[in-house]
Design brief:
The protein is mainly α. About 40% of the residues lie in helices and about 10% in strands. It has five helices and three strands, in the order H-E-H-H-E-H-E-H. It has a three-stranded parallel beta sheet. Helix 3 crosses helix 4. The chain is globular. The chain starts with a helix and ends in a 25-residue tail after the last helix.
Length: about 160
C-alpha cells in the first residue's frame, strides 16, 4: 500500500474492476484466486473495520464483438471460471461483495462504435450498474455499529454446476 496507506485508512468503499486481460491471457483459476485473495487481505489490513470492497465480476467475454469467435469462446469460458473463483474467494472476506455484470448487457455482441469510442455505451451502462450495486451494498451496512460488516450480501448467481 506504501504511500497510499493513509488514504486507504480513510476509505469506506473500494471498487475493483479486474480480469478482462486475465481472461484474454488465460490466467489460471488458481492464480486468479490466489492473487484476488492476497489483494483483498492486503486491502482489509489497511481499511477501516467498516469499509467494504465491491468486486465487479468480469463481463461474459463470449459477447465481445472485437474478438474472433474462437477467442470469444475461450475468453468467455475463462470469464465464467474466474467469476466463479471470485465468488469462492469472497467467501473468506465477509466485507467484500461480487457485483454481477449487468444482464441487460449480455444479450447481444458488444461491437465498438469506432476506434476512438470503443465500448463507450457498454462502460457507461456498466458504471451505472456498479454505482447502484455499491449504494445498495452500503445501505446494508449497519451505520450505528462501529465495526459493522455487510449483513445481507446481495444475491449473486453461483454457477457451481455450470463450471466444469
Amino acid at each position: 500500500m506504501g504511500r497510499h496507506a493513509g488514504d486507504i485508512a480513510k476509505t469506506d468503499l473500494i471498487v475493483v474492476l479486474a480480469g478482462i486481460s486475465d481472461c484474454l491471457t488465460l490466467t489460471s483459476a488458481a492464480r486468479w484466486h490466489r492473487g484476488l485473495d492476497e489483494m483483498l487481505t492486503a486491502l482489509f489490513d489497511h481499511l477501516p473495520l467498516d469499509a467494504h470492497v465491491a468486486v465487479a465480476e468480469i463481463p461474459p467475454l463470449e459477447n465481445a464483438g472485437s474478438l474472433s469467435r474462437s477467442a470469444r469462446l475461450a475468453a468467455g469460458y475463462r470469464s465464467t471460471l474466474l467469476n466463479h473463483r471470485t465468488r469462492k474467494a469472497l467467501r473468506s472476506h465477509p466485507r467484500a461483495t461480487a457485483i454481477p455484470f449487468p444482464p441487460e448487457l449480455t444479450d447481444r455482441l458488444w461491437v465498438p462504435q469506432s476506434r476512438q469510442e470503443r465500448y463507450t455505451r457498454t462502460y457507461s451502462l456498466w458504471s451505472r450498474s456498479l454505482i447502484a450495486a455499491c449504494l445498495e451494498a452500503r445501505e446494508l451496512v449497519a451505520p450505528s455499529a462501529p465495526h459493522s460488516s455487510l449483513r445481507y450480501p446481495p444475491p449473486v448467481h453461483d454457477p457451481d454446476r455450470e463450471v466444469r
